[in-house]
Automatic annotation (TrEMBL):
Keywords from the named record: Hydrolase
Gene3D superfamilies (UniProt xref): 2.60.120.200
Listed InterPro entries: Beta-glucanase-like (IPR000757), ConA-like_dom_sf (IPR013320), Glycosyl_Hydrlase_16 (IPR050546)
Keyword Hydrolase: yes
One Gene Ontology biological process: carbohydrate metabolic process
Organism lineage: Bacteria, Pseudomonadati, Bacteroidota, Flavobacteriia, Flavobacteriales
Domain GH16: 35-264
Family matches, as Pfam families: Glyco_hydro_16
SUPFAM superfamilies associated with the record: Concanavalin A-like lectins/glucanases
Protein's recorded name: Glycosyl hydrolases family 16
Gene Ontology MF annotations: hydrolase activity, hydrolyzing O-glycosyl compounds
Entry similarity comment: Belongs to the glycosyl hydrolase 16 family.
Amino acid sequence: MKQIVVIFFACLVAACGTGNIQEKPDGKWELIWQDEFENEGKPDVDKWSQAPRNSADWARFCTDSNATRFVKDGKLHLRGILNTNKNDTVKYNTGCIRTTDKFSFKYGKIEVKAKLDKGKGSWPAIWMMPQDPKYGGWPHSGEIDIMEYLNYDTIVYQTLHTNYIDIQEKKEYPPYFTTVPFKIDTFNVYGVEWYPNRLDFFVNGKKTFSYPKIENADSKQWPFNQEFFIILDQALGGNWVGSIKDEDLPVEMLVDWVRVFKEK
């Protein structure tokens, strides 16, 4: 979720955002956790908690409100809106939920089927952070960004953050992110397969790039040997995404389902 300093266009699979959505995994995977968002109202409190508001760009407007995160018609709705609550001093409210202390995992496969909204300042994201950061605060214990989207783009970003990438600035060998063309007016499936020696990223079942554990790597390059939890949010504005256009609000990320698997 931090700003990507060097942005270049790299999609290792042509038109990887336009393939058929894969609703079922192949036979090597066993489902261990899911939310199909079938019960209307608040997100399931046994699975999700409210992400707190703080000074991080993505969390500045997180709001524990039914107007910004709710389940309806079989979909999770995460919204970025103009604040209408006079008791809240911020201008905007955003939907932000996470599975911290409720569900986390190490190695396996995660897929999220979601539909995004265009808008100046819109910044929806599907990502993961360490449950108990064993190597210290950000970025030392790692971050896995399964999907981020900005403004009116025709691409999504898939990114990793570590000490090796963000402090040592070793960003090319191996590459630490990619951008993927996609269709914004429909649902797409964003995913990661996580192994002890690499992370493979996917859009609609097509691999977009792979980040390997390099030989003799320590935690600075490979902190991905600990459990991570899931975050879903519809952020607004910030240093990376830029300013917010009020006329484009509300914006919304719709999530059809979230599924996590382990290898059989």
